[in-house]
Write a structure and sequence with these properties.
Largest sheet: none
Number of strands: 0
Radius of gyration: 22 Å
Order of helices and strands: HHHH
């Protein structure tokens, strides 16, 4: 079965929930736009810092864009120190 037929069949199944499908599609497009714009904004912050100009507007836009993203589970590893680590670090 071709990819287009599979895609068409999936859209046929989803036709009953048009509002939810439209919402999910818009949410996915929004997340894709944010994922594309975030590194661009980071570059503008770095450019502002390296050119020694006011970086606050670029930082504010970058922070606002980053705040609009959903949190990523597992993006930051959690490090737990047990008693062996504490004893090793104390010496």
């Amino acid at each position: 079965m071709s990819l287009l037929r599979v895609y068409g069949r999936a859209l046929g199944y989803l036709a009953a929930d048009k509002k939810r499908v439209v919402f999910l599609c818009l949410a996915n497009v929004t997340l894709a736009i944010v994922a594309i714009l975030e590194p661009i904004m980071f570059g503008r912050v770095i450019d502002a810092i390296s050119d020694r100009v006011d970086a606050i507007p670029a930082l504010a836009m970058w922070a606002g864009l980053g705040a609009s993203r959903p949190p990523q589970r597992g993006a930051v590893p959690v490090v737990r120190a047990d008693h062996h680590d504490a004893a090793r670090l104390a010496s």
